[in-house]
Amino acid sequence: MKNHQYAIADYNLKIAKKELTDIHFLDKSTDDIKKPAELLKTFLLKAFLDSQSLTIRGQQIAGMMASFEENALSFLDKNAPLSKIGFYNIALQLLHFQVGEDFLIDNPITKMKDLNLPVADVNDEMNLYDTICAWYLLLNTHNKYGTTFVDDLASKGYFAQNLNSFSKPLIFNGKTMPVYDTNNLIREVVYVEADQDTDNDGKLDLLKTEIIRPKESNKNKVPVIFTNSPYNQGTNDKDGKDLTHNVNIGLQHKEPNNYSYSNIKAKNNKEKLPEPRTVEGKTRKAEQTLDRELSYTLNDYFLARGFAVVYSAGIGTYESDGFRTTGDYDETLSATAVIEWLTGKRTAFTNKLDNNQIEAYWSNGNVAMSGRSYLGTLQIAAATTGVEGLKTCIAEAAISNWYDYYRENGLVLAPGGFQGEDADVLAAETYSRKQNASEFYKNEEAWQKQLAKITEGQERDTGNYNEFWDARNYLKDAKNIKADMFLIHGLNDDNVKPKNVEQIWQAIKPLNINKKLILHQGKHIYINAFQSIDFTDMINLWLTYKLLDVDNNAPELIPNVIIQDNTKEQTWNAFNEWENPDSIKTLHPSQNNELIDDFDHGKKQFKDSVDSKDFQKYCLDYKKWRNDLVLDREDNPLKDNRIIFKTAPAKEDFTIDGKVKIQLNASASQNFGMISCMLVDYGNDYRLTETPKPLGHRINEGYLWREDSLREFKMKMQKTPYKEIAEGHINMQNRSNSYQVDDMEANADYDMSLELQPTFYHLLAGHQLGLVIFATDFENTVRGNQDIKYTINLAESNIQLPIRKQ
Amino acid sequence: MKNHQYAIADYNLKIAKKELTDIHFLDKSTDDIKKPAELLKTFLLKAFLDSQSLTIRGQQIAGMMASFEENALSFLDKNAPLSKIGFYNIALQLLHFQVGEDFLIDNPITKMKDLNLPVADVNDEMNLYDTICAWYLLLNTHNKYGTTFVDDLASKGYFAQNLNSFSKPLIFNGKTMPVYDTNNLIREVVYVEADQDTDNDGKLDLLKTEIIRPKESNKNKVPVIFTNSPYNQGTNDKDGKDLTHNVNIGLQHKEPNNYSYSNIKAKNNKEKLPEPRTVEGKTRKAEQTLDRELSYTLNDYFLARGFAVVYSAGIGTYESDGFRTTGDYDETLSATAVIEWLTGKRTAFTNKLDNNQIEAYWSNGNVAMSGRSYLGTLQIAAATTGVEGLKTCIAEAAISNWYDYYRENGLVLAPGGFQGEDADVLAAETYSRKQNASEFYKNEEAWQKQLAKITEGQERDTGNYNEFWDARNYLKDAKNIKADMFLIHGLNDDNVKPKNVEQIWQAIKPLNINKKLILHQGKHIYINAFQSIDFTDMINLWLTYKLLDVDNNAPELIPNVIIQDNTKEQTWNAFNEWENPDSIKTLHPSQNNELIDDFDHGKKQFKDSVDSKDFQKYCLDYKKWRNDLVLDREDNPLKDNRIIFKTAPAKEDFTIDGKVKIQLNASASQNFGMISCMLVDYGNDYRLTETPKPLGHRINEGYLWREDSLREFKMKMQKTPYKEIAEGHINMQNRSNSYQVDDMEANADYDMSLELQPTFYHLLAGHQLGLVIFATDFENTVRGNQDIKYTINLAESNIQLPIRKQ
């Protein structure tokens, strides 16, 4: 284990005393204590719960060793001087490190430092103040299982023994503590009236909104975490599957156009909306309840800490009105409508018939959004409206421009693992409104029309950026963002690719808002249950600052950019910026298949088609395809289907920081073509898994409340010969941009330039950087298995690497 | 989905009326209803929760279709005649089947029957009584997600709306309903004083015992489910790993002995025990609490239903006294001690020091045990003592004889996936007492001695059955079993192999107890969250009968033997017996590598050693080894390391029911040797996965209580060329039995006979049955890679198949 805690707030003796009093470690009974050992024993007795007898607690303290000679109880009972070593011997055991197995009893401080756990700056022989400060810091220190000691105590019932005795909210070291009764949460449903009529039934769409909030919120307003998840009310997996597009079709020549952006700029054709419903009455009592919601464990964590959590699935989902649109402004509106209701600016009703209004009287008007993937996407969508009350987004693996999700440079490009998916498939999948049989039959015809409109708009046959996609590009409106943005993305996310986070990160750079970025080594995952980083604590610090207005210094404590290293387990580094290279290094492909400083003359060819047996195989087994593509063995079926250029083995470590750019001069044997480029780290070595491994330990989000499972990326058990760093793909007719179609003739040379997905990749000394140039990407592009040959002119091609020294 | 419900109790109108009244579907308000449609509407309104407004409930009813023309609300409001078709249209929607996607609105009854869901025997135009009966049956019918409609309602809050209004326990259709408040369970720890001093400290061992029980149990006694899990307080994985034995060592010649059973019969050397502690006081108030226990979801289900659940980890575990022994009588005693306390016959204390006695005053004295693997094993151990109060065991994948877990016929044989594990490894792994640092240091020397005793006793160098193993063979005492036995085992369990369940099943056959057996197609798994079988309901019916003394006919309703078919998804069949073949078919190996009716002359040879590269590979990749062993391709490295005999393709389906016996006459080129036999189903076909696949749906064990995940075995996506049916292994020097060592000379012929693991295997027409004879089993035996050749005399060898016609 290697700990990284960014969310420990600064403290001093005064703060420690005050806050230890707030959480009842210090009280009248401790006022008269004169000896550090006695004070520590009192702390331990409290840590082992007042609700247990003194004998039991003594038994538990005696279970720990204070030194080789003595158990903690007899040691403390002597009231001898308290050494720093003795304190941290006990401390490590409280943090669940095992004597013998995890550390040696005489060397706890070295162990703390090895594990990157904070050690209090106290005297070797601790005085009373040292004891207070060290105990305070210990409570805020992560244990072996990725939670702070104080959260661990909470999960054992420390606060639950007497919830009513703590002030609410209770802030400790800048973070909100779990002092709310999760057994008695209020669970209710309302219907928010949005300014839209997406099913054209002449009535404004009502959006089912689920609320879970502490009962205290009836009296004292609470902050809100809102998760807008189109999946939350169920999905139509079969419909999605049925609609999935055939990708085994050929690329075709596209008629050139002379489009400039104005040709495809999305129009804002506002239709006249129906009148809002007439409010017939007003109530504080919801009429509908909800059973087990589809939750996100990070939200569960905050429910125990007094935040309200709100789920809404949006237009066209189960028990809501309207139709799915996959990412256009109407979907944004159905997100902001809920926020407007939460901030008192919009009407909601208790049911769909009686027009009985219900307000979010329990909301303090400060809203954060949370969630990953589509759920993160809708955070960005909502933020770009500048909607009031949305204080921050915790957007994980979010799409910032739907074109970058389903397309690339004039090509249809599937999200990794989902070949044939498209905007229409996603719309059909999330149209859970149809799970209500009456709604299904009533709306079937209109829905099929809507779906056909999406299919038409997405224009799979061209792959071009068009009005449809422009209407689904949030980057255009990034300037309107007022919410602070906390972005999280996996550098290996091949579903929502890193370009999505990079573009929004760049777009908000000029804005006067707080912005944070975490880049991890995972694919499309959550990181709120990791052993090596205190993500959940950071979000707690952040939301305590943003939504509870506690001045905890969160913007300064949390680094602007945190990036996980790809060469070692459990290693995170803080930076001021991403895409901040020291230099751009340009290399040229050579006849000898090298990447070299000078340019070389000549041409290299590759073909695209494979024999039909291999074709079948690769369609089913992308891993096999990728191995054959990347591994430059002579005996492999793809040896003529790509060209590989490699650098010499690196003399020292360096980092590729940002977007690698490829300049190509190339021709195809047909009047159409696509080129794919992959940047590869060649070198037989141990590498991290991209899917976190459960460590077999439960994380409690409160006391006997919901749970998560501790995870971590681990080194793979075996060495691997390569690792893909980044990819890019381009339709040769979209050399200018993704909406303008250029002409193309067979065997004519064209210049083009291509940016790969942005990255932050630590290349180890001895490894080689490789550039693989090919056409069909079995996992992502269409697969026509067409007879096309491609030729690259070496002298006019290069690769530009943004390099950061290690 | 294909439903199998064995736990629907018989009912009639009278029962239906009474029980629908008990759960408040019938009450005064329904007395005056004259029209079936009105009655159904009333039922539906109640199903959608009294706590919701009428408008909301109407909205939800209107969401369903009653016919193509009409939604359920408008249909029922007309009060027109209620057709059976209309009823089941609505019923299927209540069971979460989707109109259009799952069924057609005009054909619900065919769909119900296709899904194997029960349809009430009512008139096509239903009268009031029909409506009552059909609604009653519907409440007891499984929905799309593997739970009964009434349990689904419970998880939505049906009972939770007003828990106090229901009688407790509440029995519905013979099963106990979740009407207990899981938010206010009592959680306490006591220390049971057992009649043993396994750490020889001069004091009887105190066993930490965790109790979770409904608060109602303070007033009314409740039944108890006891899970004895040595893993429950943590494990020392590193210690286990460090102790794991090297298996890459050669087999050796063993000195012959003339042992009869009396030579190795376990002695009952009772040592004099310390005096029990003097009781200093008596209390009803426990002093220690427990936070989140390591639970089993089946137990969680029963906590919502008013059962107490008790966990104890036994001697040598965290916060208990004593040392681990891996399966001997002392471990049995630490299980029965808890049962004795639960039935008022043994003392427990509130802590380890004060001798303050606490009784299980809340227990009704009826105890069931539950759990899988080691947890099931200790059920069998406890049952063989005949301990009073233990009414039934729900033993899943349990060991009945530890020799059958770690050894076979004079060979060391690892549980699948755990090469090098042995009794000592398991003892070290489960010695969680050491996680208490003081206990670790205090007892380290004595514990190492105890561990050495186990290592010595298990006698890895011979692999023989000896006193050590005899002391860990529960079958000897099976005759003492008084508890009813519910046994569950996976036919593909290569960890606890099927022989374990088969032997205990045979051993209890003569006893005058109730016995049930379920054999599934999984490996070492739980089956309490499957879509296709109502396992949890059956256990509910069973425990309601056994522990609550409700006369629900459980022994008659639940078939004696339920076996899952291995050729189709979601197919279970009921039988009266296992191992009940119609005939024994004897086949002989031939020179042509066939299995034929007549015997053939000649010999066949195979060698054991492989080249060192293959050796390394197979040690790491058992799947690869198995494929090379079984697939009779000429190009594979193991072609000379085994002989394969096959039957002609089967003309029709048949089932192998029980233990296949192999008679061999064989020699080895050394004066020692082992022979392994594998029965294989050859035939390129789709087969079931052995690990259940999560279906992506949550199962609620109550209302906002703990959860499980719906699972099912699915057909693999691709065809596989073979499936292993059963294996057996024998040390050629243990030809007589597992404790007598016979002499052996190199190249001399010996007769031996070998039983494979018992099975129940449906072989499809067109498939071939194969017998693979080899020596080293990379996954299970030692792997000496020795230069040995084996010769089989065909004429004196045969295979005897217990055949059951399909």
Write a structural description.
- Two copies of one chain form a homodimer.
- The first copy, chain A, has 806 residues and is an alpha+beta fold.
- The first copy, chain A, has three domains: 13-176, no CATH class; 182-246 and 285-520, Rossmann fold; 583-805, Galactose-binding domain-like (Jelly Rolls).
- Helices cover 25% and strands 23% of the residues of chain A.
- The first copy, chain A, has 23 helices and 34 strands.
- In chain A, the strands form eight sheets. Chain A has an eleven-stranded mixed sheet, with helices on both faces.
- In chain A, a hairpin with a 6-residue loop joins strand 27 (693-700) and strand 28 (707-712).
- In chain A, helix 10 (237-243) runs antiparallel to helix 16 (423-430).
- The mean pLDDT of chain A is 97.
CATH superfamily of the largest domain in chain A: Alpha/Beta hydrolase fold, catalytic domain
Major sheet details of chain A: 11 strands, mixed
Overall 3D form of chain A:
globular
Quaternary organisation of the protein chains: homodimer
The number of helices of chain A is: 23
The tally of beta strands of chain A, per DSSP, is 34
Q: Residue-averaged pLDDT of chain A, rounded?
A: 97
Largest interface, Cβ cutoff 8 Å:
A-B, 52 and 52 residues
- How do the strands line up in the largest sheet of chain A? 10-5-6-9-7-12-13-16-17-18-19
Q: Please tell me the total number of domains of chain A.
A: 3
Annotated CATH topology of the largest domain in chain A: Rossmann fold
The CATH architecture classification of the largest domain in chain A is 3-Layer(aba) Sandwich
